Amino acid sequence: MDQKPTISQDFSAKPADRKPADPKPAKSHGKSRGLGRDVVVASICGAVVALMVGASYAAVPFYNWFCRATGFNGTTQVATSAPATGPIARKIAVRFDSNVAPGLPWKFEPEQSEIEVQIGQVVTVFYTVTNQAARPTAGQAAYNVAPLTVGSYFQKINCFCFTEQTMAPGEKREMPVVFYVDPSIADDHENDGLNTITLSYTFYPVKDPVVKPLASGEDDKRKGNL
């Protein structure tokens, strides 16, 4: 009988003699990428927060500048002289409104509630303010005109609203407003039917007024007429 060939096997090697495969080193660069990504995200978030904080501080002056430049929300304009073209034949009524915010013990009212003016005519009107407190008080006026769309045409040459007002106890003062309605309003056909403009002021208290000498009696001389 033919014998089948045999394959010899060496079982002499013990399991302990076999060297285990070298373990694969841990991938540290993945962790580094994660830390780098966190730093980038944190930096972006910090920049966004800083931008938002900066924008909040800039929002108020930017809004005021925008309103003055465009007449938005009925904000009147500031002029340095009378219009070059002079007044035109068209007339318009201008009403005067006065208000005092809570916390300011002032009596504030216009000397005339309404006047009729020619468009382009430079006019001076007066408001009367009385400090009813037994101590010095300070305030500053905010203003606008109605309808709101005419803000860009209402030009003020002189106005008490441009500066903070400090008044002595019991002081009464006459404050002038010098203004005109820009003749270019006649070219704005949206205002063809406009017959009346209302100029409105509201005095607000100033908590930390700028230290300066109180006004003397020169205000009674009605300076500021043009």
- Pattern of helices and strands: HEEEEEEEEEE
Counting DSSP H or I runs of 4 or more residues, the number of helices is 1
Q: How far apart, in Å, are the first and last alpha carbons?
A: 142 Å
Measured as a percent range, the helix fraction is 10-25%
DSSP strand count: 10
Summarize the biggest pleated sheet: 5 strands, mixed
Strand content: 25-35%
Rounded mean pLDDT score = 76
Strand order of the biggest β-sheet: 1-7-9-5-3
Tell me the radius of gyration.
39 Å
Bulk shape: flat
Which structural class do you get from the secondary structure elements?
alpha+beta
Low-confidence stretches: 52-74, 214-221
Can you tell me about this structure?
The protein is α+β, with helices and mostly antiparallel strands and 226 residues long. The chain contains 1 helix and 10 strands, in the order H-E-E-E-E-E-E-E-E-E-E. The protein has one helix spanning 29-70; strands at 77-78, 91-100, 106-110, 114-118, 123-131, 137-146, 154-159, 165-167, 172-181, 196-205. The strands form 2 sheets. It has a 5-stranded mixed β-sheet with strand order 1-7-9-5-3. The chain has a 5-stranded mixed β-sheet with strand order 4-2-10-6-8, with no helix packed on it. It is flat. Mean pLDDT is 76; it is low at 52-74 and 214-221.
